[in-house]
Amino acid sequence: MEFILNTIFWTLSLYGLFEILKNIIYIATYTNFKANGIYLIIAVKNQEEKIEFFLRSSLFKILYGKEEYLKNIIVADLKSTDNTREIAKKLENDYDCLRVLTWKECKDIIDNVNES
């Protein structure tokens, strides 16, 4: 009986440690967004033919136009089965204000926004 209780205790302890480490990595990775401001979330799925043109033209208008207040752009991939995510990831390397996330990661960010 003691063995079973110790096994359950250590399993739950390791699970808790794993969750803490996962949250630390999540915070270090996805909290480089500005705390305040306007976020533009673009949800995409299977748009490999159109995504690069759309993002480049949108970013050009945003970055070099009069929309100076908009510097946080999230591309939320809705489980694309083509190269949409890879193309958007390539553009993420070119633009600092662009982040490519899965829909779940995007939802987690939205759910964890602190109300000021």
Can you characterise this structure?
The protein is an alpha/beta fold and 116 residues long. It has 2 domains: 31 residues; 82 residues. The chain is built from 4 helices and 3 strands. It has a 3-stranded parallel beta sheet with strand order 1-2-3. Strand 2, helix 3 and strand 3 form a beta-alpha-beta unit. Helix 2 packs parallel to helix 3. The model has no long low-confidence stretch (mean pLDDT 81).
Structure summary, number of beta strands: 3
Order of helices and strands: HEHEHEH
The averaged pLDDT comes out at: 81
Number of helices: 4
Compute the number of structural domains.
2
Largest sheet at a glance? 3 strands, parallel
Radius of gyration: 19 Å
Distance between the termini: 50 Å
Q: Going across the major beta sheet, what is the strand order?
A: 1-2-3
Q: Roughly what fraction of the amino acids lie in strands?
A: 5-15%
Using the alpha-carbon principal axes, give the shape.
elongated
Give the uncertain stretches in residue-range form: none
**What percent of residues adopt helix (DSSP H or I)?**
40-55%
Structural class: alpha/beta
